[in-house]
Amino acid sequence: KDLGTLLDDFEKREIKSEAITLEEVDEMEERSGTYESLFSRRALKFRSMGLADKDLSEEDYRKLISEEYTFLKRPVFIVDDQIFVGNSKKVIDTLKVALS
Q1: Does residue 39 carry a pLDDT above 90?
Q2: For residue 12, with 0-12 CB atoms within 10 Å meaning exposed, 13-18 middle and 19 or more buried, which class applies?
């Protein structure tokens, strides 16, 4: 909502119906630095699968994100070589600056 017409130039992708590939997950990790930074602990399956009690590795995060779309923290914006993950005020404000 905060981005308004700035979203007009973005391609929207519905990852529920068009699954992300391992290559896309790897590309996002290259930009963000870690798979963990892309991982959503708010996903309902996080607790139901008992993942909250496990010490997950980067490979675990990679596998989980690629197999279950709800584990990808959203939204994800890729602008040139930068990535913006999540909808926190800080992320959205930084994205606004990058787009202006």
Answers
A1: yes
A2: exposed
Q: Which amino acid is at 40?
A: S
The predicted-structure confidence for 60-100, as pLDDT tens digits, reads as follows: 999 999 999 999 999 999 998 899 999 999 999 999 998 88
Phi-psi region of 80 (alpha: psi -120 to 50; beta: other; left: phi over 0): left
The pair of structure tokens assigned to 24 is 């896309």
- Contact yes or no for 40/72 (Cβ under 8 A): yes
Burial of residue 64 (number of CB atoms within 10 Å: 0-12, 13-18, 19+):
buried
Q: How far apart are CA 13 and CA 74, in angstroms?
A: 11
